Amino acid sequence: MSATLKWMWVLAVALATGCGKGATPLPTRLVPTRMPTIAPSPTSTEPGSADSGWVVAARGIEVRNLAVAGVVPDTAAPIYAVRLDPALVRLRVRYAPDTPQLLRTWVAAHHPLVAINGGFFTADNQATALIVADGEAHGASYAGFGGMLAASADGRVWIQALREEPYDPAVRLDQAIQSFPMLVYPGGVVAEISDNGQRARRTAVAMDRAGRLLIIVCPTSAFSLQALATWLASSDLEIDRALNFDGGSSSGLFVDVGDVRWQIDSFTTLPSVLLIEPRTS
Predict the structure, then answer these.
(1) What share of the chain is helix, strand, coil (3-state, %, to 5)?
(2) What is the C-alpha separation between 156 and 83, in angstroms, rounded?
(3) Is residue 51 within 8 Å of 24, Cβ to Cβ?
(4) Measured between alpha carbons, how far is 10 from 132 in angstroms, rounded to an integer?
């Protein structure tokens, strides 16, 4: 098939399955993570219990875990959220298609404060879109769809909807991950997503109206993409814009800040991850 048709097929499969390499459809029932989620006091709330509220884990880093009712009948879906002040932390993208690793292995090697999985990738672990790691660009940008989480060398962090603001190679990026779809467009507008209602584990990044970066993970197969988009826009997280990262077996979240230890591992190896590190300058 042509290169264009091949990429369209790859993207369609990735979106439908909510995961990268070796993807298979996930069941619609709630599926727990394979590793324990540990959140010592004051954030020791177990999945499905009451909202912990925002808890300061360190300067510039807040955490919150809560349960969302009504997504799956008779069950509350757990959500784990991290809120970051971009002026006080640094984003770091790691990309190693030749040596993909489970999220916990990435964490053990680099010791970040926070870590999540990156965007979609092919069966041979190549990113399906642009990735910028420490100023070095890999892959080609999505055109007309999807979004990009990006950071400049001076520490500015943003999410842009590529449909409305296409990637400009003249803009120097320090770190970036492109993924799809946009869940919430700038101004808090809920995206209309044709996702057939399939539920999967989910990872998303967002910017709130105060300019803070949010990392949001649901470690059970509770949300369809449309349901997640609708919940994000209607929640009290004050979301201005949000972007879906790879989900399903790729989803994961590690937090090691202050007294907080969250460990939600990916089910598959990952060629790319987003790490949050202390800002040193």
Answers:
(1) 15, 40, 50
(2) 16
(3) no
(4) 21
- Contact (CB, 8 A) for 248 and 17: yes
Residue pair 82/43 in contact (Cβ under 8 Å)? The answer is: no
Give the DSSP per-residue string, 54-75: -EEEETTEEEEEEEEEEEETTE
Question: How far from chain centre, in Å, is Cα 97?
Answer: 18
Q: Which token pair is 36?
A: 């324990």
80: phi > 0 → left, psi -120 to 50 → alpha, else beta; which?
Answer: beta
- Token representation of residue 166: 């296409």
Radius of gyration of the chain (CA): 17
d(CA 96, CA 273): 9
Domain extents in the chain: 3-278
In angstroms, the CA 45 to CA 39 distance is 7
Q: What are the structure tokens assigned to 158, written together?
A: 């943003």
At 101, list the tokens.
Answer: 């690793």
Per-residue pLDDT tens listing for the chain (281 residues): 333 333 443 444 344 445 554 333 333 333 334 443 444 333 433 433 479 999 999 999 999 999 998 888 878 999 999 999 999 999 999 999 999 999 999 999 999 999 999 999 999 999 999 999 999 999 999 999 999 999 999 999 999 999 999 999 999 999 999 999 999 999 999 999 988 889 999 999 999 999 999 999 999 999 999 999 999 999 999 999 999 999 999 999 999 999 999 999 999 999 999 999 999 87
Q: Are 50 and 67 in contact (CB under 8 A)?
A: yes
